[in-house]
Amino acid sequence: RKEVEQDPGPFNVPEGATVAFNCTYSNSASQSFFWYRQDCRKEPKLLMSVYSSGNEDGRFTAQLNRASQYISLLIRDSKLSDSATYLCVVNRGGGFKTIFGAGTRLFVKA
Amino acid sequence: DGGITQSPKYLFRKEGQNVTLSCEQNLNHDAMYWYRQDPGQGLRLIYYSQIVNDFQKGDIAEGYSVSREKKESFPLTVTSAQKNPTAFYLCASSIGGTSGGARGELFFGEGSRLTVL
């Protein structure tokens, strides 16, 4: 079993739709959590950190459930430019203990 | 602007050849990393370095070598011993080695795409 698991998708949604991704992690010692965005053939870039209290950045909302060991990302009012792969990332303390999920692909269509 | 620069972006290699991928950062970060990404898989850690003149093997170090002679530079050599070297290679850095800085946030270069012919 992978330490960080995501539904690979693809998710195909129309512009303006709301879409949600989930991610589960297996190591209860995990300390910090992130969502990264990766465009096709580009490097990953930090989208947002994830906190137990939940956090929001514009159209994006991230949530962490430590008891169930899952992380979610909600995108409201999807834009064409949101089309990308979203990586769930879990850190167990120290940059070298960062584990990446394989990513969820999102396609937003006009 | 601070950042991480990788070169070359695209590289073709014949079987049996060693190649070296360059990674330079001007973020003044202590820690640097090399990852490999294959289609449908998450990033996998090849090597990491938390401080100058020290580096450690990651999960898939076989067939690779690194050096860390300067804080700014962390080159990766893909040797002929690497059985399946065709992949997208990403260099990253973070503020602190053990703390990871900012709760583990990594900053990436644009990547180097290696193809073995």
Structural features, described:
The complex is a heterodimer of chains A (110) and B (117). Chain A has no helices and eleven strands. By secondary structure, chain A is mainly β. In chain A, strands 2, 4, 5, 9, 10 and 11 form a six-stranded mixed β-sheet that branches. In chain A, strands 1-3-8-7-6 form a five-stranded antiparallel β-sheet, with no helix packed on it. Chain B is mainly beta and 117 residues long. In chain B, strands 2, 4, 5, 6, 9, 10 and 11 form a seven-stranded mixed β-sheet that branches. Chain B is globular, with a radius of gyration of 13 Å. The termini of chain B are far apart. The chains are: A mainly beta (110), B mainly beta (117). Chain A binds chain B through residues 2, 4, 8, 31-32, 34, 41-46, 49, 87, 91, 93-103, and chain B through 31, 33, 35, 40-43, 45, 48, 50, 56, 58, 88, 90, 92, 94, 96-101, 103-106, 108-111, 113.
List the helices and strands and how they pair.
The complex is a heterodimer of chains A (110) and B (117).
Chain A: E1 4-6, E2 11-14, E3 19-25, E4 32-38, E5 44-50, E6 55-57, E7 60-65, E8 70-75, E9 84-91, E10 98-100, E11 104-109
Parallel strand pairs in A: 2-11
Antiparallel strand pairs in A: 1-3, 3-8, 4-5, 4-9, 6-7, 7-8, 9-10, 9-11
Chain B: E1 4-7, E2 10-13, E3 19-25, E4 31-37, E5 44-51, E6 54-57, E7 64-66, E8 76-78, E9 87-94, E10 107-108, E11 112-116
Parallel strand pairs in B: 2-11
Antiparallel strand pairs in B: 1-3, 3-8, 4-5, 4-9, 5-6, 7-8, 9-10, 9-11
Which key features would you list for this structure?
heterodimer, A: mainly beta, B: mainly beta, four-stranded antiparallel beta sheet, 11 strands, 47% strand
Count, helices of chain B: 0
Helix content of chain A: under 10%
SSE order of chain A in H/E notation?
EEEEEEEEEEE
Strand fraction of chain B equals over 45%
Mean residue pLDDT of chain B: 90
Summing up helix and strand content along with how strands pair, one would put the structural category of chain B as mainly beta
- Main sheet attributes: strand count, strand direction, barrel closure of chain B: 7 strands, mixed
Count of helical stretches of chain A = 0
Structural class of chain A: mainly beta
- Mean residue pLDDT of chain A: 93
- Give the total of beta strands of chain B: 11
> Shape of chain B from CA axes?
globular
Topology as H/E string of chain B? EEEEEEEEEEE
Radius of gyration of chain B: 13 Å
Largest interface: A-B, 26 and 31 residues
Proportion of strand residues of chain A? over 45%
Distance between the termini of chain A: 37 Å
